[in-house]
Structure formats: C-alpha cells, structure tokens
Amino acid sequence: MSAATTRSRTPDRLCAEAVGLARTAAEEAAAPGVVGEHVDVVAEGDRVVTHLFECKEFGYRGWRWAVTVARASRAKVVTLDETVLLPGPDALLAPEWVPWSERLRPGDMGPGDLLPTDAEDLRLEPGYSGEDVPPPNSAVSEEMAELAEAEDAELTAGPPAELPVAPERGSIASVAEELGMRRARVLSRYGLHVAADRWDEAYGAKTQMAQAAPATCVSCGFLVPIGGSLGQAFGVCGNEFSPADGRVVSLSYGCGGHSEAAVMPKPPRPAPPVIDETRVDPFPLRPAADSGSVPSAPDGTEDLGHS
C-alpha cells in the first residue's frame, strides 16, 4: 500500500476537528434543531473530510447531514466545500420511481384527468389526414371537385377562385368529416387484437359465468350488435340484471340472464337407480324341468338313441 493511499484513508487532523464549522453549515442549510448529534468523520482524500450529523427531520429517519470541509496544502484554515442530505445504511427510502405510463391501471382516471397518448403507440396508426391524392373513382375525384365548386359558387358571393378563403364545403377534409373519417389516428391491427384479448378475458367463454350459463350471448335478445370487424366476435350487453350490463361481451359469453333461459328445456337426465335392500330375490340352484326347449323323458326310461 502506497503512502498516498494511507494518507487518504486517515482523516486530516485540522479538518476532523472542524466539527463546529460543519455543524454551522448544516444548520444554515437545514434549520436549527433539525441537525442532530455528530455521527462520524469520513476521509474523502488528502485534507478532505466529511462530517456526518444525525437528521431529526420528520420523514427522514436514518438520513444524515453530510458536510465536507477541505484544507489547502500547508494551510491552517479549514474551508467549507458542500452540504448535502444523504441516506444512511438504515434510511427510510422512497420506492423506486416508475413512469406514470407503467403505473396507470384501468379505472385510475377521474373527472378532469387527461391521458396523453404516445406518438409511437403501437395500438394506433395514422388515420385519414386529407393529404393523400384521392383516386379517380373516389367520391372526391376531379369531377366531384368541379361539382362542389359549382355548388359553392351558388352559396357564396362570388366564384371560389376569387374568394380570399377557399370554402370548406366540398373539400377533402370536409367530406371526410361528414363521413366520420376525420380522425388523426385509428386503431391498428395490434390495437384491435389487444382490445379483443382484454374483452375476451373479462367476458369470454372461459369465465365461470359463461361455463354455467344455459346458452351463449349470440342467441340472446339483449345483445346489442356493434359495427366493424370486432362486431363478428363481440357485442354490448343490454340486460340491466346481467353482470355484464353495458359491457362489451364475447358472443361466446353467457349468463343466467339469457333472454330464453326461462323457456329453454332442460336436458333429459336418467333417473337414479333404486335398490330395494329389504327384498330377497330367490335364485334356484338347478334349472326347472320345463325350462328347456326339449321335453324331458318320463322317468328316464326312454332310449336316448346313443350308447
């Protein structure tokens, strides 16, 4: 071990004796009465020492005020370096920070809360932006644009070309808005699959309610169909007495509130066997004389035809 390493692990005498300077600095950074007893002295390097004081602040159990002092070479004056609050070995620490996007759970949002969506969210994909050139056979082709201009000319003060602002009626964006297509982003295929898996897990065929149901939702009169590709496998329950009322349910889901549950015939079940243990059934040890198909010989005197 070198001499420099030995000196760095041994606290400097003048710096180690500057407890009063360190306490004054800690009280200025905190408040009087918050800085507790002097705990330890740690050598940080040559003529660099850190004084540790107990922290009495509520909520900071086990924390310590760390005041670092230093002394220049061949100088006898100790100067202040920094004052910080550091956790000790048994300090009460907050749990590891987790981003809000990972802490959020279904049902956490309340009135007035805003949930920003990531621009790169895999559940969404760009919708109709209006920047693409429509195909010739679309509803907003050149012929339709000319017709829209003629209609706008009848409703405006002059020709559209002479107006300071182009009329919105008949434009690609306005037509898309009328058709319900004016959305910046729509569900992607991945988003559809994620939603379908989530709905099927909550109200699908594998739930206990569906396993005990008399029939599935596909034959229930309370099922409200939905549009789109998800309508082939899901619907909305409209039975107020059902546990899935107002929820998106799988067509293979079911409950006791099925519309035809009262008129559905129950499957036939065989009656359980009844055994009378008080009655004795006699069983002969030998067959009866008239039980065979050949009449018996009288007294055994008739020739049987063999030797």
Shape: elongated
For the terminal residues, how far apart are their CA atoms? 124 Å
The largest beta-sheet arranges its strands as 1-2-3-4
Total count of helical runs of at least 4 residues: 8
- Write down the Rg: 45 Å
| Residue fraction in strands | 15-25%
Largest sheet: 4 strands, antiparallel
Specify the structural class.
alpha+beta
Helical percent range?
Answer: 10-25%
Secondary-structure element pattern, one letter each: HHHEEEEHEHHEHHEEE
Mean pLDDT: 78
Q: Point out poorly predicted stretches.
A: 1-7
How many DSSP-defined strands?
9
Question: What report would you give on this structure?
Answer:
The protein has 307 residues and is an alpha+beta fold. The chain is elongated. It contains eight helices and nine strands. The strands form three sheets. The chain has a four-stranded antiparallel sheet with strand order 1-2-3-4.
Quick gist of this model?
The protein is of the alpha+beta class and 307 residues long.
Helix and strand topology:
Layout: H1 3-9, H2 13-16, H3 19-29, E1 35-45, E2 48-55, E3 63-71, E4 78-87, H4 100-103, E5 124-126, H5 142-155, H6 172-178, E6 185-187, H7 189-202, H8 208-211, E7 223-225, E8 234-237, E9 248-250
Antiparallel strand pairs: 1-2, 2-3, 3-4, 5-6, 7-8, 8-9
Sum up the structure in keywords:
8 helices, alpha+beta, four-stranded antiparallel beta sheet, 307 residues, single chain
